[in-house]
Amino acid sequence: MADEKHFRVDFHTHIIPGNFPDLAEKYGDERFPTLKHTCDCGAEIYRNGGLFRKIDHLAWDPKKRIEQMDKEGIDVQVLSPIPVTFTYWADADKCLELSQVQNDFIAATVKEYPDRFAGLGTVPLQNAELAIAEMERCINELGLVGIEVGSNVNGQNFDEPEIQKFLEAAAKMDVPVFVHPWATVGQERMPRHRFMYCIGMPSETALAAASVIYSGILDRHPNLKLCFAHGGGSFPYVLARIDQAWESWPDSRKTEEKPSHYANKFYFDTLVYDPQNLQFMINKFGTDKLIAGSDFPFVLREVPSGKVVDVMENLSEEDKKKMLGENAIEFLGLKKEDFIKKAAANTSEN
């Protein structure tokens, strides 16, 4: 393992199959993302007939990822799909087709390198029945350990009945859910300056978290495990205002307690970059619900995962251990020892 002092898990990483299917051509719809390789180590993702993002082999090659992980001192990455591939706007059966390709790829990658990776699946969230069935396949057949979902479904928030059905099933199955922003609010006002990434995404995540709370699902299913990306976006910073709104308009309440009570049940990744921001989150939520994650391998990522935790001198070693690895393991229902045993077995085989 990379660091004997801290077992390091990068909870927030994305991966895409190198042979990503071209559903745009298959179905004559350019809204589907496509992957075009430009060389052995580079590729471009296209959507709506234009370039969406340039990526390199770290986005699809597990061997190259492991080399980078070793350089950065990361023991385990949790793999999840790139949000642009969610495609909730599509017919549910076509979205399921794309979901299954990605889930199979992530499961195969984990199976090949079980000491270095764990995997999250994706589901056609626009159709609860199909989404639940694919979640069951991910967990029971593929060996994935959770599901990544987008922050809304075609503009519908998490308090909509169809999405609630899926979340209720996840709670009953004890499946952890990672919520990542996508299709953000206010996109028409953010065509310049990359504001979609730095303003839209944090706002979108706050809306998702608040809609979960106001739905009342955490009263019905208090064991539902949710982790919100990018430190919860702007949610932690507007939570006091959400509480005040709950107090001010009792006619809009659907929960037994005020929103901050339920916010303490959430997990958040630590991708906030600034130690003062992380300290604010620690003051709000404690250190048990904060999970290091980097957004690997994209340009906005933290290098290495958990850097913001490392630089905080006031934290105890116990708290650093929790945030750098142990909280992720607990959230996913795994055991650190399992990865260590797999790593030892891999070493002996080689």
TrEMBL record:
Q: What class of enzyme is it?
A: lyase
Keyword field: Decarboxylase, Lyase, Metal-binding, Zinc
Which InterPro entries does this UniProt record tie to the protein?
A: ACMSD, Amidohydro-rel, Metal_Hydrolase
List, in alphabetical order, the GO biological process terms annotated in this UniProt record.
secondary metabolic process
Q: Name one Pfam family in it.
A: Amidohydro_2
Outline the extent of the Amidohydrolase-related domain.
9-334
* E.C. number: 4.1.1.45
Annotated GO MF terms: aminocarboxymuconate-semialdehyde decarboxylase activity; hydrolase activity; metal ion binding
Keyword DNA-binding belongs to the record: no
Instruction: Give the record's family classification.
Output: Belongs to the metallo-dependent hydrolases superfamily. ACMSD family.
State whether it acts alone or in a complex, and with which partners, per the record: Monomer.
Please identify the protein, giving its name as recorded: 2-amino-3-carboxymuconate-6-semialdehyde decarboxylase
Whose protein is this, by species?
Bacillus benzoevorans
